[in-house]
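Q: Got a minute? One more chain.
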Amino acid sequence: TFDQLEANLSLIKERENLISAESDDPELRKAGKDKVISDIAMIDELMVQNRTLIEELESKVKNSSYQLGKFRKMVKNLNTQVEEKDGEIATLKEELTQKDFSINTLTMKVDTLNQVKEEIPVSLVMCRSP
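A: Always. Here it is, folded:
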């Protein structure tokens, strides 16, 4: 739409120059009255198109500003969620470390109990021997 707007402005300038050149030449003034009227009508139409394009651009700017604000808010919320998830992950890692420690402790106790269990029959046999 920027290109179209610029093209319209260039056409308007060309038509203005033609009208100016025709109005300076007495021969063209008489013969070109209808042409001048046609050029002015074309300039008016181009100006209407330009106003419409400008309104569309202004609307897009307003909408993009609104969308940009929404996008920024969404990014801020996502950052907050990521930070919360980082905290949750850190907590889960700590819990995992504690559970690993608990598992290791329980494994050592099981090993100790198994060792004691194996020693009990040997001790019983020794105690029964005369």
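A: The radius of gyration is 45 Å.
Q: Perfect, thanks.
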